[in-house]
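User: I'll paste a sequence; please echo it back and then give the predicted structure.

Assistant: Echoing your sequence first, then the prediction.
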Amino acid sequence: MKFQSYPNTYVGYAHIIIEDLSRSLKFYKEIIGFEVLEQSADKAVLTADGKTPLLILEQPDGVTPKQLRTTGLYHFALLVPCRADLAKILLHLIQCRYPLQGASDHYVSEAIYLGDPDGNGIEIYFDRPEETWKWQNGQVEMGTVALDAEGLLAENDETPWTGLPSETVMGHIHLHVADIGATEEFYTKGLGFDIVVRYGGQALFVSTGNYHHHIGLNTWNGVGAPAPEATSVGLKSFTLILPSEEARKNTVERLQQLGSFINQEKEAVVTKDPSGNVIHLVVPTLRNN
């Protein structure tokens, strides 16, 4: 996908905490359509193409149910290559009788929403061609209207559902945060994202490369919402893939100037946004020069 590749900064994979690994694996394989790339007693790495991690599931010792009214994951969003793929997934969910939480037309995309067995939010969506997106004064027009489900289902080619298309990527991630002002400074001045949509003082969408958004940020769980406990169901971390080692070095310097948390862990630089959301800054090995 153009916007989830070099030279953009984009989300690589999400790492979430769940209560029951076997239950979650059944859901993510049979309902969502992932394959297992790696698995241990308490963790599984999931993929769509058999080689690229998109989601990590972890069942830590002492795991607790999802805490309400906290910062953290609103949803992670899986981007499929074409409208027919989204149609096939919608039909599959209908046939499974798995409950949806929503189905929306956002002008730039069409999306369906659901939750996993632990309440972690999931969006599965298809991007309309970028030449149809409308921009004004540096902001992209996005809305939320009812999805034309019948029109979408008419795109189904009648071939059997076999799981997520191999070209599926992590299109974006949407987070609950505690304060929009501090969040904006961190993601723009620190990480280098551009603001592409504002919804008053409650939500902010940012991207690189003129995408409609790589990250969504909102205070819908309450201004000043606390971070969840470390063992609570929800987001443990997510990765941002930067275009080069030089870009990562410059990003780290900007974050240090803001006084943000920085730590080196193996091949990743780890930071936290002002709400405690953990981010791994990664550079692809082939561009690590």
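The radius of gyration is 18 Å. DSSP finds five helices and 19 strands in the chain.
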